[in-house]
Amino acid sequence: MKTFFHKMIKPAFFLMLFVLILSYPALSLSYAANGLKLWFDRMVPTLFPFMLLSTVMIRQNLTEGFASFLYPIAGRLYGMSRNCVYCLLLGFLCGFPMGARTIAEMYERKQLSKREAEFLLAFCNNIGPVYYISFFLPVTGLPLKKLPFFLIGMYGIPLVYGIFVRYTGFLLPKGQFLSGNDRFAKGQPESFQKSLDYAMQSAIAGITTLGGYMILFNLLNLLPHAFFAVLSISQKEPALALLNCLLEITGGIMRLKDSFPLAALILLPIGGLSCLAQTKSMIQNTDLSMCRHLLHKIVQTGMTAAYYLLLGGFLF
User: Fold this and answer.
1) Beta carbons of 127 and 268 less than 8 angstroms apart
2) Global pTM?
3) What is the pLDDT confidence band of residue 227, given thresholds at 50, 70 and 90?
4) pLDDT above 70 (res 176)
5) Are 65 and 99 in contact (CB under 8 A)?
6) Read out DSSP for 145-194?
């Protein structure tokens, strides 16, 4: 079966993409250009500085000091180290997929155990608040006067889910949370210039890869477009916009706008296939489980759907 998939299904899929690009050249250009614009306008200015600064801090062994102000609360609540608190901060404040990138970097440098890294990956890889408040809510037309309820849905649910995972071990590998006494020995910090050079190269490579994924998954909108064209389905734009959200969430939200905000809210935690592919890219050099991460995201998406369906009459 694996050989058949590799020799037949994969070539057929890519051949179909080539045919679609040649059949719809103007539309292909539009989708690709939209992915490129969204990457340049949204991801580069919001993510690149955090990628750069975070990598420098990790390689300079500054993360524990940076997280000290939140550690008395988060450390006790989740029973975790300062390094874990640093990942939590980055994962919630800096925007997707900074959580996965930070966790992978610290795990590779042995500043986190595998169980800690898998635990953090379960709930600390989220859409950033700047993106959520300045882009998502205005575009979908959701009322800002009810912002606290939307923030609970976006960030309160994963924070509560993290407590559940921490104390039940749900979908976590065997291992331990390391205390300050048995923490891995710190490596010597590099010279600042060396850390900055490495961080610059790493951030450029990382942000470029994310841009490639945004372009690719926006381009994959050719598939449902061609499918709907073959079936001659009318009133197809809402369905295409929802499928766009499943492929690449930002482009999908731009198309969906305020026509179906509940669907956008429910889909946002999992982020679509592009977000999942970006997460996989961030952790691919580690042995962290993408399957576990996906299962955690599915559970949180279900919790989010229940929350908004319960409050639907009040919020919409």
Assistant:
1) yes
2) 0.89
3) confident
4) yes
5) no
6) GGHHHHHIIIIIHHHHHHHHHHHH-TTPPS-----SSSPPPPPPPPPHHH
